[in-house]
Amino acid sequence: VFMATGLSAPLKCQMLDVSATGARLRVGDPSVAPQEFLIVLDAGLNRWCQVMWRSSVEIGIKFVEPPKSLKSKR
User: Fold this and answer.
1) Measured between alpha carbons, how far is 59 from 29 in angstroms, rounded to an integer?
2) pLDDT value of position 35
3) Residue 63, Cβ neighbours under 10 Å: how many?
4) What is the pLDDT of residue 8?
5) What is the 3-state secondary structure (H, E, C) of 12-73?
6) What are phi and psi of 32, to 5 degrees?
7) What is the pLDDT of residue 71?
8) Distance between CA atoms of 25 and 60, rounded to whole angstroms?
9) Taking the C-alpha atoms of 46, 11, 32 and 4 in order, what is their torsion angle to the nearest 10 degrees?
10) Rounded-to-integer distance, Cα 14 and Cα 48, Å
11) How deeply is 55 buried, as exposed, middle or buried, from its count of CB atoms within 10 A (0-12, 13-18, 19+)?
12) Cα(32)–Cα(14) distance, integer angstroms
């Protein structure tokens, strides 16, 4: 599982818990996790996320709609 912003190299993380609305991730340094990012799962599933809380080694994220600038035009 990776956190991606497109501005720097993806950050590796470990998904500890997941629900329909969010997840808990273990990361090396939660302070470097961006406030919003795309989570890239091994199965090719991507979800836009927002950090809701940070601890010394984990972050809690909420799944959100991608920014309008990133949504595909139909």
Assistant:
1) 10
2) 92
3) 15
4) 79
5) ECEEEEECCCEEEEECCCHHHCCCEEEEECCCCCEEEEEEEEECCCEEEEEECCCCHHHCCC
6) -90, -5
7) 58
8) 6
9) -30
10) 16
11) exposed
12) 15
Token code pair at residue 52: 């809701």
| Amino acid at position 66, single letter | P
Give CA angle at 45 (17, 8), nearest 5°. Answer: 90
pLDDT, tens digit, for every residue of 14-69? 999 999 999 999 998 888 889 999 998 876 788 999 999 999 999 999 999 877 76
Which two three-digit tokens encode residue 6? 């497109």
The CA-based dihedral angle spanning residues 37, 12, 1, 14, taken in that order and rounded to the nearest 10 degrees = -110
Residue 5: exposure state from Cβ atoms within 10 A (0-12, 13-18, ≥19): middle
Angstrom distance (rounded) from CA 47 to CA 58: 18
Tokens found for residue 62? 């909420």
